[in-house]
Write a structure and sequence with these properties.
The protein is built from 17 helices and eleven strands. It is of the alpha+beta class. Among the domains are: 9-197, no CATH class; 368-445, no CATH class. Helix 5 (141-156) crosses helix 16 (466-477) and helix 16 packs antiparallel against helix 17. The two termini are 31 Å apart. The protein binds adenosine monophosphate (AMP) and magnesium ion (MG). Residues 277-278, 287 line the site of magnesium ion.
Length: 525
């Protein structure tokens, strides 16, 4: 297999733990600990992302080689790889949780691709690290399939995200108590190789702050600017103070986070665990666990069973939770600033950037040339109707582009309703709304072909629905892994109707309404 080139800046430029190996411990004054993946019984490549393989320069022969499964299953290292687990903290469900760190993720190093792009490669489920606490450092096949598929699908949907190179079966069993009800069962284990320019999280900055280690905090901030925000680092040399550079950086993190969450709301993605250790400093969707996709539009939907009570991470609260998380980041960065003003300015930027992105989404999803103040009300009313009448978000918006403004009718949208009686009860209100919408379209200069193209580029035909993931998982657990590659193939072009693949665009079937994995998910993965 071809050798990758590595440039492990994070290890080279930042302080590490003098002890290596997986002994569980508190690690002070250091941002990483050297630890090797624990070999598995029989690594076997189940699926890969063609785009990520190409980005790293792997060809068919590389992918077919047993070395590939060995390296990306954690059984072998290439020259230049220096495996480590990162040290970070975080606020979990609103409370400071202290040191967390990579408990089951081990970074292999920072690969530099032929085009100069930097890809940190990280094995999720590669065995224990100093940050594993009482857990085993492993991941089950079901959660690995979900992360592999969804992160690649998100990329193709145009949502900023970490990527996935490979999905490798470990050939070992992992014990999990899926519903924390005292019934653990052995499940097949797997390892995903994730890739991102950086896996730095808000929690990386929070931990040194919580320990009063301002020197480490500054070292990390300067490193992040240099490596991950070079446009800001360069601008600062000679011109402006450190503080104004940090201020620009924080504002950019706020903007990127706003853009990311606006995309989530556009496509109907619910992250499920928006703890600050799961927030990327690059504004990438990171850590796919008990996430979910909206079927019937419901701003209160909360896929994560651990969150069933408070519903902190419900679909509709994601923008405000992102803001709350940014406030925690602002607090962590405060020692870098003489006053809170630049941090407040960054937080204000979040609000402005989110509002602008949300309005842009409204215009694109409804096929309007621009979003006016009255259009915000138009979409709010639509959201209320979709919720009340239990309407599939993805199908409704996709079909809305087929509306004939001269004779607006609910018929082409029938397919989007889950409950015929709720449809009938809401039909008049929908007719009303469609008439308003058709009148609004008439005020726009966009002709119907251009409107439809604009809408089809914002309203996906295919999203990785929860029940489809569960079907691929059921098949794989029964020995038929072909469903994973098939589905990924569909998700590579989510905005294009693909004849013969209608099954991937259907609304959630009745059997999936209350089934585990389809409507509710646990963290246990
Ligand atoms: P998460 O909610 O998945 O972001 O995980 C929160 C923390 O628990 C992180 O520090 C993870 O690394 C750690 N963690 C989750 N699952 C495991 C596991 N199976 N083994 C070790 N650490 C884990
Ligand atoms: Mg996490």
């Amino acid at each position: 297999m071809r050798a990758l080139r590595f440039d492990n800046a994070f290890l080279r430029e930042l302080p590490g733990d003098p002890e290596s190996g997986p002994r569980v411990r508190q690690v002070h004054g250091a941002l990483w600990s050297r630890v090797d993946p624990t070999p598995v019984a029989a690594p076997r490549l189940i699926a890969y992302s063609a785009e990520m393989a190409a980005a790293l320069g792997f060809d068919e022969d590389d992918l077919a080689s047993p070395d590939f499964a060995a390296v990306f299953g954690g059984n072998a290292l290439q020259p230049g790889m220096q495996p480590y687990a990162a040290n970070y903290g975080g606020h979990q469900f609103g409370h400071w949780a202290g040191q967390l760190g990579d408990g089951r993720a081990i970074s292999l190093g920072e690969a530099v691709a032929a085009d100069g792009a930097r890809w940190e490669l990280q094995l999720k489920g590669a065995g224990p690290t100093p940050y594993s606490r009482s857990a085993d450092g492993r991941a089950v096949l079901r959660s690995s399939i979900r992360e592999f598929l969804c992160s690649e699908a998100m990329h193709h949907l145009g949502v900023p995200t970490t990527r996935a190179l490979s999905l490798v079966a470990s050939g070992e069993q992992v014990e999990r108590d899926m519903f924390y009800d005292g019934h653990p069962r052995p499940e097949p284990g797997a390892i995903v190789c994730r890739a991102a320019p950086s896996f730095l999280r808000f929690g990386h900055f929070e931990l040194p702050f919580s320990r009063g280690d301002a020197a480490l905090l500054k070292q990390l901030a300067d490193f992040t600017l240099r490596r991950d925000f070079p446009h800001l680092a360069a601008r600062g040399i000679g011109a402006g103070s450190d503080e104004s550079r940090y201020g620009d950086w924080f504002a950019e993190v706020c903007e990127r986070t706003a853009a990311m969450v606006a995309h989530w709301m556009r496509v109907g993605f619910v992250h499920g665990v928006m703890n600050t250790d799961n927030m990327s400093i690059l504004g990438l969707t990171i850590d796919y666990g008990p996430y979910g996709w909206i079927d019937d539009y419901d701003p209160d939907w909360t896929p994560n069973t651990t969150d069933a009570h408070g519903r902190r991470y419900r679909f509709g609260w994601q923008p405000r939770i992102a803001h709350w998380n940014l406030m925690r980041l602002a607090q962590a960065l405060s020692p870098l600033f003489g006053s809170t003003e630049p941090l407040q300015a960054g937080l204000d930027r979040f609000a402005a950037a989110y509002t602008a992105a949300d309005r842009d989404n409204t215009a694109r999803k409804l096929g309007l040339a621009e979003c006016r103040d009255e259009d915000v009300e138009l979409i709010r009313d639509l959201h209320r109707l979709l919720h009340e009448a239990e309407v599939d978000m993805t199908i409704f918006f996709r079909r809305l582009a087929r509306l004939e403004p001269a004779a607006p009718s609910l018929d082409p949208l029938d397919e989007a309703f889950y409950d015929p009686s709720k449809r009938d009860a809401a039909a008049a209100a929908f007719q009303d709304w469609l008439r308003r919408y058709a009148a609004r379209l008439g005020e726009d200069a966009l002709d119907s072909a251009r409107r439809r193209t604009r809408m089809d580029a914002a309203n996906p035909c295919y999203v990785p629905r929860n029940y489809l993931a569960q079907q691929a998982i059921d098949r794989a657990e029964a020995g038929d892994e072909a469903g994973i590659a098939e589905w990924l193939e569909v998700m590579r072009r989510p905005y294009e109707e693909q004849p013969g693949r209608e099954a991937f665009a259907r609304k959630r079937p009745d059997w999936a309404r209350t089934r585990a994995g389809c409507s509710m998910l646990s963290c246990s993965s």
